[in-house]
Structure formats: structure tokens, C-alpha cells
Amino acid sequence: MNNRLRWDVMAANADDEKVAAAAAAQVVRRLIVVLLLTAAALDLTRCGLVMTAGRHPAPTAGLVAAGLAAAALTARTARGCQVGQRWAGWTALLIGGVSTPQAAASGFRSPYTIPDTATAAVGVLLAITILATAGRMGRRDTTPQFPVCWTGKPRGVPPGGTP
Measured between alpha carbons, how far is 106 from 89 in angstroms, rounded to an integer? Predict the structure, then answer.
């Protein structure tokens, strides 16, 4: 026979729900970090392609500097997202939203076709991931609570039930 009271069982279930919500948030953070690091790698790939294309030195230097700055910002954002900084989510959304137009601006010409297409795809996936999980990563409880439905009893106690 189990020596737990009904309240203890409900409290254990509530703890399990919190652990599951925290684990889901960690998985989402890791996914966002992977997408950000992929975007940084694509920026660095584009920098290497610009240098090998043999253009005029001044525009090449400008494009390389912009690519390195974008890669550094993306890597810093990935680190911030990994540790749960609030600003990192907004920055990741901005990076995801700007990646697709930035890739389209180059026109998908050779030799940039593959990195530009990949950048556009990663940008869209990143923006969708951020928007799909907006507001859930930093919260302990991912289910919405409506004040109108509040019964005044501790969580886990059914309406009309006693602890």
C-alpha cells in the first residue's frame, strides 16, 4: 500500500510537470542555438566566397567586415540564448527576419547560390521557431492561467476537492 496522501501525489505530479516544461524549454533553446550557429557558419562561408571571387578590394573588404560582424553578433546571440537571456530571443528573431531579405539581395547568383538559399531557409526556420515558442521559454508554467477560472485553491486541487 502507498503511504502518500492525495495531496502529496498531486504535488509530485505538479513537480513532474515543471520538470517536463523546463526540459522542453531547454530543447527549444538548443534548437535555436543550433540554428544561430548555422547562420553564423553561413555568414563565414559567404565571407570566404567573397574573398575568393576576386572583386575590387574595397567592396570585398566591406562585405567581409559586414559578414564577420554578422557572424560575431550571431554567435553572441547564440551564447545569450543558451544561458536564457531575454534579449537573445529578440535578437534571434531579428537575425531570422533579416536573413531572408539579405540572402535575396545578392540575387542567388553563382557562387553564392547554395549559401544564400541555406541562409534564407535557416532565417525562416529561426523566425518560425522563435515565434512558435514566444513567451514559453522563460516561464515556469507553459499553460495559460485565466484569472476568471481561478478557484482560490492551490494548484492541483480539483474544484470542490479538498487537499
Answer: 27
- pLDDT band with cut points at 50, 70 and 90 for residue 36: very high
Residue 32: C-alpha distances to residues 5, 75, 108, 132 (Å): 41, 11, 25, 12
Peptide bond into 101 cis (omega under 30): no
Residues 6+ away with beta carbon under 8 Å from 80: 87, 88, 91
| All cell numbers assigned to 4 | 502518500
* Count of C-beta atoms within a 10 Å radius of residue 23: 10
Q: Which of 97, 101, 103, 95 is nearest to 119 (CA)?
A: 103
The answer to whether 97 touches 127, Cβ cutoff 8 Å, is yes
pLDDT at residue 146 greater than cutoff 70:
no
